[in-house]
User: Fold Sodium transporter HKT1 from Eucalyptus grandis.
Amino acid sequence: MKKLSCFGNKVEHSLPSIQKHSCLLQSRHPVASSLLRNLARRANSFWTQLAYFFLVSAIGYWALKLCEPKSPSYKPRDLDIFFTSVSATTASSMSTVEMEAFSNSQLIIIILLMLFGGEVFTSMLGLYLSRSEFAGRDHRKVNSAVSDHSDNNIELKLPPLYPVKEANTFKFDPEMKGIPLKPAPCGEGGSTLLSVYISVVPSARKVLRDKGLAVQMFSVFMTVSTFANCGFVPLNENMLAFKHNPGLLWLLLPQVLLGNTLYPPCLMAAIWLLKWVTGRAEFDYMLRNSGEMGYAHLLPGFHCLCLAATVCKFLLVQFVALCCMEWGSPAMEGLSPYEKLVGALFEAANTRHAGESVFDLSIISPAILVLFVLMMYLPTHTSFLPVRNVKTAPKIQRDEPRRHLLTRLMFSQLSYLVIFIILICITEREYLKNDPLNFNVMNITIETIR
Assistant:
C-alpha cells in the first residue's frame, strides 16, 4: 500500500494531485451518483417501491395507448389499458382486454413491463442500488482521508465491499469486478427451445398460425411471462390450446419454478457450482456468509434445502389431489393418460404463483379450488421444515432444550381450517354439484370457521 510522507515539499505537491484525482473519481457523474445513493438508502421503502411500480405502469400505459391495436376497429378504453399495464408490471396477470387484441408492438411493451416488474429483476435492481451506495461511501472516505492534513502518514485505501482471499486473509475489490450482478440470460435459452419445439411440432405451430401469432414473438413472450410468474399468455384461452402438447408444458415447467419458489435454491446451487469450477474465494465467502450479502434471495444452504423440499411436497400434494379428483372429470376429458399427468403437474406448479392454466378452472371441483387458494396464499419463501435463525435468536432461546421435531412441524390454525374445508368439500361433492344454492364453498367456509 502506497503511503505519502507529509514532510517537506512532497506533501505540498502530492496532496493537490491526489485531491484532484479523488474529486474526478467522485464527480464523474455527480447527478447520477447522488440519485443512485438516495435511491439506495430508500430501496426498501414502501413508498419508493410504490413510486417505481406506478412510474413503470404509467409509462407502459402511454406506450400501449400510442401503439395501434391488432384490429383498428377495436380500441380498448383508457382504464382497461392502464389496468393491463399495472397488471403486467405487478405480475398479477389480470386483464380486461382480450390478449389476442394486442398487436405485436403492444406485446413487446407488455414483455418489457413484465420484465421490469418481475421479482428477480427488482431484487437485482435493489442490489445494484446498494452497491452504488457502498461505492459512494468509499469515495467519501477517500476524500476525507486525503483532506486530513493533521496525520503524519496518510494511507490511501478503500474499505471492504466483498472479499478476495489472499494469503489466508481477505482484501476487498471496490469495483466488484469478480462478481457479476446481472441475472443470467436464461431467457434466451428458454425462448430458443420453445421456438424449436413449435417449429417441429405441427399441432403447436397450427395453434399460433390460426391465432396470427409469430413463433418467435410467442416464445419470447411466454419465456418472460413464465419466468416472471406473471401468467399472461397471448391467447384468450390461456394454455388450454396447448393441453395436447406435453412437450411444450415440460419446457415451461422449469421456468415457472426457477423464477419463483426455487429461485433461492437454484441461486445457491449456481454459486456452489461456480466455486467448484473456478475455486474463487468470493463464492466461498458468499456461501458461508449469505446473510451478510444484503440479498434477500440468497439464503443459507440448509434453508435452501428446506425450501426445495417444501416446494416438492406442495407439488406432490397438488399433483396427487388433481389426479385423484379430476382424472375422469370434464376438465381432463379427451386427454391421454400421459397428457393428464403432465397437465396436472403443470397446473400444480403454476398455483404458486404464475397463474398459467391448462385446464378450465370453472369446472374444477371446489375442493381443488380451495387447495389452489391456499397455495396462492403462501409466500414464496414458505418453508414447511424447521429453520431456526441461530444468529438472531436470543441467548435464552438458544440455551433452551430443542423442542421435539413434531412440535416444530405443527400446522397453524389456518392450515387446519383449510384442511377441514377441503375434506368437507370432498365428502359433500355430490351436494355441491346438485344443490349449489345451499351447498357451496362459501357456506362451507363460513360454517367451518364459525
